[in-house]
Design brief:
- It is a single chain.
- By secondary structure, the protein is mainly alpha-helical.
- 49% of the residues lie in helices and 6% in strands.
- Helix 5 crosses helix 6.
- The longest helix has 16 residues, at 100-115.
- It is elongated.
- The N and C termini lie far apart (66 Å).
Length: 153
Amino acid sequence: MLKISYNKTLLKDSFINNIDSAISSKRKKYADYHKTVFHIHTPASHDYRLLESENADYYSKMSDEEMYLLAMKKQLFPENSLSYEDALDIATQNKHFETPKEYFAYLLIAKKLSDENIKLAIITDHNTISGYEKLVEAVNIVHKTFVNKVYTN
């Protein structure tokens, strides 16, 4: 009886392996996977929760200054880079948002999506679509302002 042995290294570099690699590299790519969030609410929704640990009333009862302080705590901006007065000026200049509090809330959502490399977010607000355009604006601001910078945890 003839016993055939082979060297795995030789097989790895074999002609057949090279053909298989060439075929595999030429296969059509039909789809890409993207990190997705399937259920988020924006401040436009009556049951928006700014923080998971708080109830829906927490956000609605916050002042502009409390929202600014939370944004700084969540590292929306680098530490000591923006005073409250400067933040108010910037927020009120942007006509997409009704209040500075709303401006910071949308920026926090957009920054979190960006930091976590989320490519698709499905907004599930109740009885409104107004949060969509505001979130798109916030995402654009974040991408222009924080190019390749990650400040949040």
